[in-house]
Write a structure and sequence with these properties.
Number of strands: 5
Distance between the termini: 33 Å
Structural class: alpha+beta
Radius of gyration: 14 Å
Largest sheet: 5 strands, mixed
Helix content: 25-40%
Shape: globular
Length: 113
Amino acid sequence: MLGWKREASKKQMYRITLHQDLQTEDLPLLPDELREDFIQYQRVLKLDPYKTRGIPSHDLRGDLKKHRAIEIDCNAGSYRLVYRIYESPSPKRVQIISFGEHDLAYERAKERK
């Protein structure tokens, strides 16, 4: 944890915003383990939404161009946390669009973008 604070002080962190439906529609459907880890994923994105501290992530294409997704395997299921990065205007921010099982997360992200 101390390493995170030291690293974070060297560069500006990203502000995290959540899509308005995330808390009511996405989080209740997640396994308890992922709901508990949600704050940790936000911390990772706050520090560097591109490198995600070793958690697999990738750029999206097609309808979700300019979005990224964190890849999470949990309970033999595949989950995605879909987000978009805004470098400007200041402050830099990351908006979390959806979080759910693989296909559902992408479907919801397309509806919400």
